[in-house]
From TrEMBL:
Species in which this protein is naturally found: Ursus maritimus
Entry keyword set: Cell membrane, Disulfide bond, Glycoprotein, Membrane, Transmembrane, Transmembrane helix
Cellular component, GO annotation: plasma membrane
Membrane topology classification: Multi-pass membrane protein
Family from the record: Belongs to the tetraspanin (TM4SF) family.
Protein name: Tetraspanin
The UniProt record lists the keyword Transmembrane helix: yes
Length: 197
């Protein structure tokens, strides 16, 4: 991107038609790649959903191994009020939260605190609220943890904010088209001035 910006700025300042053409072609290429990505995302949305499930489940497995990953998962689960990729039982993939008899962890059959339904009356965060919660029936779980998966909640968020997301993409596309038009206009003006010399 810095090469693209450099080519556009220097091409305009120095009236260098080669750099301006490079800027215009590269910006057009990026525009068509974004357009193709959007079309492919719409066509292959089921495949993308499966890949998102796979990605989240792999990160669930490594939840306690990487503090940055742990913070990212906690943020996503709190923001979207969700738990796991498809639901709380995805946490069975993690060695600390799985329900096997071989697991000596206190977090056995539990979920992270970010899955818990927050009590607005409490000022202090209860980090042990998810302990043993997966031993309960699903109806009993609903009062203490979020039972919806993050993939479904992300899809719901995307549908709820579709106008904003589409507006951002259309705005970026219009800026790119505007940049291409301005660069081509400047190239033709430079050629017209050079022809009159």
């Amino acid at each position: 991107m810095s090469v693209l910006g450099f080519a556009g700025c220097i091409g305009a300042l120095r009236e260098n038609t080669f750099l301006l053409k490079f800027f215009s072609v590269f910006l057009g290429l990026i525009f068509f790649l974004e357009l193709a990505t959007g079309i492919l995302a719409f066509v292959f949305k089921d495949w993308i959903r499966d890949q998102l499930n796979f990605f989240i489940n792999n990160n669930v497995k490594a939840y306690r191994d990487d503090i940055d990953l742990q913070n990212l998962i906690d943020f996503a689960q709190e923001y979207w009020s969700c738990c796991g990729a498809r639901g709380p039982n995805d946490w069975n993939l993690n060695i600390y939260f799985n329900c096997t008899d071989l697991n000596p962890s206190r977090e056995r059959c539990g979920v992270p605190f970010s899955c818990c339904v927050r009590d607005p009356a409490e000022d202090v965060l209860n980090t042990q609220c998810g302990y043993d919660v997966r031993l309960k029936l699903e109806l009993e779980q609903q009062g203490s943890i979020h039972t919806k998966g993050c993939v479904g909640q992300f899809e719901k968020w995307l549908q709820d904010n579709l106008i904003v997301v589409a507006g951002v993409f259309v705005g970026v596309a219009l800026l790119q088209i505007f940049g291409i038009c301005l660069a081509q206009n400047l190239v033709s003006d430079i050629k017209a001035v050079k022809a009159n010399w």
